[in-house]
Amino acid sequence: MHKQALIPYLLLLGDSALIQGQRLCEWCGKAPALEEELALMNVGLDLVGQARNWLEYATELLDDGRDADALAFRRDERAFRNLLLVEQPNGDFAVTMLKQFLYDAWHHAVLEGLAASADERIAGIAAKGLKEVSYHLRRSGEWVQRLGDGTEESRRRMLDAIPVLWRFTVELTAANDHEVQLAQAGIAADPAHVARRWQATVSALFASVELPLPKAASHFYLDGRQGLHTEHLGLLLAEMQFLPRAYPDATW
Amino acid sequence: MYAQLVETGVKRLKTLEEMSPEERAFQEKIDAEIKIEAKNWMPDAYRQTLIRQISQHAHSEIVGMLPEGNWVTRAPSLKRKLQLMAKIQDEAGHGLYLYSAMETLGADRDEEIAKLHSGKAKYSSIFNYPTLTWADMGAVGWLVDGAAIVNQVVLQRTSYGPYSRAMIRICKEESFHQRQGYELLLTMMRHGTQAQKDMVQDAINRLWWPSLMMFGPSDEHSPNSAQSMAWKIKRQTNDELRQRFIDQTVPQLELLGCTAPDPALKWNEERGHYDFGEIQWDEFYEVIKGNGPCNQERLAKRRNAIEGGAWVREAAVAYARKQQNKNAA
């Protein structure tokens, strides 16, 4: 029964979008230009909206009385399935933009695959999200180029950002058995295809501004798909979930 | 969000006879309700007053993102988070419209922003109050945006065309967010727990008076109003607008089942308006001078964002230049 296998996959998609959106919220009032305040919030808004769609579908399959808010605001970090990459701290604008780009390149390839999913619900959510993510990817890619080939300082910062984030990219080209099976059933995006697309997008953009492409990251103990996160996620959730946790009977 | 206490630099209104032919032609145009456009002749004091007012208005949009940004990471549901993010995004957009309108007058946005950061330029006093609970997000949407809308609706008819057109666009978006803010409070009051209801009343208690201060000093203490009114930059006095805001807000307050922290607030049948208590003007002037609860934090955050982001903007310029050179080659 692929419905049960589908739940962790929907959580991977929903939680990743939600956590990335949450990180973008942290930029409010701190962006390097007004246009960027607007753009960062715009991208964050898209992602939280997509997260809500995925989480709502997950709650229907879970069918345990929880709604999307319960999934977002009442799960502990061990139950979150987001990519490790998106929970990383914002750092400076170079870290934020490189993180966004590495995620967008994956996200775009995944949604492209999902737009053709045999599961109509998934295909619908993905088709809508794909339009948004095409914009995200163009924007973040342009920033990686601007910073990578801007001034000496911006290039140094972009070079510094690469090793901070690169080891977490292993999750963007890997998949677990469930995902492979879901892909074979025509429901999930084909992980091998996603990996190829991601590598092609990233290497082409890095080459365009002569950023050194590190060798493929290798697997290590942590694994977002299994809820084995970095220490950053717990703090992020403490802030994000504070109100629903403190007022469990409240209606917002 | 809007501008309070804008200097016109004019001590006394000139009569038509005292005006130069250019000034007289300008004033006649104003009197005939013809909009002034960027390329038209205008008195220097009109230009400078508008630059001050529009930039103050733009700065208010930008500083106004901070009290809400304070809660965007802690919004209690996905729906509320999305609403708040959309609102903050719109505010950044409003700031951009307004800086553009201001630039039609020959001012430079970076220079005006530098004046904000050095404390020379002002922004709305309301954003110097802290947002302490989630209910503040509703109260800011309802009261603060409500007060801003009362001001801005009138500014849609302001005499300077680009400012007037910016106001028309901004009012549409602002009204939507104001209703959302009110709905947020209504949800907490109608479906919430006692703790939530207390939170709403507490937010109103803290933000009520500061919202009334958004209309600026009382008419008897507004030396700049006469000239702004004669130029039709302002269309109604501070006290008129404040009264309108109170008259329209008290029924909404009652619908919420909340009270105002003003024992003198009472319907006056004879006037056909609500009477209300005296505003703490000392507090207003202290906040405007920079001594409010969050003035330092707000300015420090804006300064850090712009100064800390200089390398990003420099990179963008350097990259654009390189691309241009490549294309030229």
From TrEMBL, chain A:
InterPro entries: Aromatic_CoA_ox/epox (IPR052703), Ferritin-like (IPR012347), Ferritin-like_SF (IPR009078), PaaA_PaaC (IPR007814), PaaC (IPR011882). It comes from the Bacteria. Its EC number is 1.14.13.149. It is an enzyme of class 1 (oxidoreductase). The keyword rRNA processing does not apply. The keyword Glycoprotein does not apply. GO terms for biological process: phenylacetate catabolic process. GO terms for cellular component: cytosol. One of its GO terms (molecular function) is phenylacetyl-CoA 1,2-epoxidase activity. Keywords: Oxidoreductase. This is Phenylacetate-CoA oxygenase subunit PaaC. It comes from Pseudomonas xantholysinigenes. The lineage of its organism: Bacteria, Pseudomonadati, Pseudomonadota, Gammaproteobacteria, Pseudomonadales. The gene is paaC.
TrEMBL record, chain B:
The keyword Ribonucleoprotein does not apply. InterPro entries: Aromatic_CoA_ox/epox, Ferritin-like, Ferritin-like_SF, PaaA, PaaA_PaaC. Signal peptide: none annotated. It comes from Pseudomonas xantholysinigenes. Its EC number is 1.14.13.149. Pfam families: PaaA_PaaC. It comes from the Bacteria. This is 1,2-phenylacetyl-CoA epoxidase subunit A. Transmembrane segments: none annotated. The lineage of its organism: Bacteria, Pseudomonadati, Pseudomonadota, Gammaproteobacteria, Pseudomonadales. Keywords: Oxidoreductase. It is an enzyme of class 1 (oxidoreductase). GO terms for molecular function: phenylacetyl-CoA 1,2-epoxidase activity. The keyword Oxidoreductase applies. GO terms for biological process: phenylacetate catabolic process. One of its GO terms (cellular component) is cytosol. SUPFAM superfamilies: Ferritin-like.
